[in-house]
Amino acid sequence: MSEAAPQPKPASRRAISRPIFERTFSINSEQAIRVIRDSYHRLMVSLYAIDVILRIIGREETVDEIESLVSQMIIECAEQLQQEKSRLEKLKADNGISETPTYTHPREFVAKIASPQIAQFVELIRLLDQLMIVMDTLWLCQVISNKHCIAARLEWQQRLQRLANKIVTMERHAHQAAYEQGHGEEVRLARQESGLNMEPQSSLDTDAPKE
Fold first, then answer.
1. Disordered: where is this region (predicted)?
2. How many of the other CB atoms lie within 10 Å of CB of 164?
3. What is the mean pLDDT of each run of 10 residues along the chain (211 residues)?
4. Strands (E), 78-185
5. CA-CA distance, 71 to 63, in Å (whole number)?
6. Which of 101, 159, 154, 166 is nearest to 130 (CA)?
7. Distance from chain centroid for Cα 157
8. Residue ranges with strand state E in 70-149
9. What is the H or E stretch that residue 52 is in?
10. pTM
């Protein structure tokens, strides 16, 4: 009985060369560091995947709608952060406070900007960090209570994390819709070519405090 001829291996597909910015920031507050640790990597992949997946299944108008929705959600959150930061800065000025604290364990954050929405969210993280610095200043100067500060820190941290979770959920729904429409293999290959099937490299130095 003759042996079956070996099947040829499928030709490897060339990875897509996509544009990306790498920007390095110092992040001071524990709340902003936690958002990066818990939400940033998955969000970065989801934002890019939304564009990749929906364009594969030929729904350009849906891509535009989702990108617009995501941008608006981020803008609204940024406006809320900025309003609170301005309010606290006025409170700081009214109390004649000019000091700014240093932090014991700031981290270097390397942001990989692969889409405009990722850039928007990175700026949101930086704005959260700035807000926390003003809030911590007022707490150290006894203008706001320990109880109030703890609650406010958690509230703003969770606000960004909830926003990230909403965007990740949108991407998962788009992914599932693509499979249900028979585009599963196309989606898999597109994710592979775009590097979306790979674990992102760590973008936050968490091993040692920055001197």
1. 190-211
2. 23
3. 52 66 95 95 83 67 81 95 98 96 95 87 96 98 96 97 93 79 76 57 47 40
4. 107-113
5. 12
6. 101
7. 13
8. 107-113
9. helix 41-56
10. 0.82
